[in-house]
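Hi R.,

As promised on Friday, here is the backbone we talked about, encoded as structure tokens. Could you run it through your design pipeline when you get a chance and send me back a sequence?
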């Protein structure tokens, strides 16, 4: 019994030790985006354009509350599935005319529909019943991407070391791409100024 406990403790320690260097071998990209006019800032994603590797599909969610899409901008990786929820007390229809157009039909309160995003790019989310509703799903080639917060700041974690093209997507504005070099265990900071 004691030998088994010791063996388990040794195995757990070795696993933890193996995991720690793996985490230390990635870096972080952080920074800030400014927008002119600022009203479009909330519709901004900063992303690594291309990165090597294969990425296991994940599932994310967009909810509908108070006739809004929550979150307003969702960032996923090519191959991911998004669950569209409805926590309003009215029916909704979710569709997008962009990239790889889809229409999930009409669904009632507490129902949900799913869609797998197999093509990269920005998708506007619309509701044919409530034309004032607007949201976005941004599909990147890799998971190294982030929507900005209310102040325009962003953080992209767990980026493998290397030199990358860092780009910014915005629903109305543009900014030139930047070249960034990520080092293991380090944080690189970059900024963007979005304009028409």
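Update: got your reply. Pasting your designed sequence below so it's all in one thread:
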């Amino acid at each position: 019994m004691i030998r088994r406990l010791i063996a388990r403790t040794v195995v757990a320690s070795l696993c933890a030790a193996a995991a720690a260097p793996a985490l230390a071998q990635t870096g972080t990209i952080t920074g800030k985006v400014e927008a002119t006019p600022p009203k479009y800032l909330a519709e901004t994603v900063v992303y690594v354009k291309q990165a090597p590797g294969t990425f296991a599909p994940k599932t994310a969610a967009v909810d509908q509350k108070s006739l809004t899409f929550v979150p307003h901008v969702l960032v996923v990786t090519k191959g991911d599935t998004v669950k569209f929820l409805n926590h309003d007390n009215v029916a909704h229809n979710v569709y997008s005319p962009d990239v790889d157009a889809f229409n999930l039909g009409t669904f009632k309160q507490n129902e949900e529909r799913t869609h797998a995003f197999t093509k990269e790019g920005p998708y506007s989310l619309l509701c044919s019943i409530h034309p004032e509703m607007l949201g976005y799903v941004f599909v990147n080639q890799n998971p190294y991407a982030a929507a900005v917060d209310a102040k325009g700041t962003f953080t992209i974690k767990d980026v493998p070391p290397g030199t990358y093209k860092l780009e910014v997507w915005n629903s109305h504005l543009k900014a030139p791409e930047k070249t960034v070099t990520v080092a293991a265990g380090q944080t690189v900071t970059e900024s963007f100024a979005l304009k028409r």
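One thing I noticed while checking it: Residues 27-53+144-196 form a domain with the Immunoglobulin-like fold (CATH 2.60.40.1120).

Thanks again,
M.
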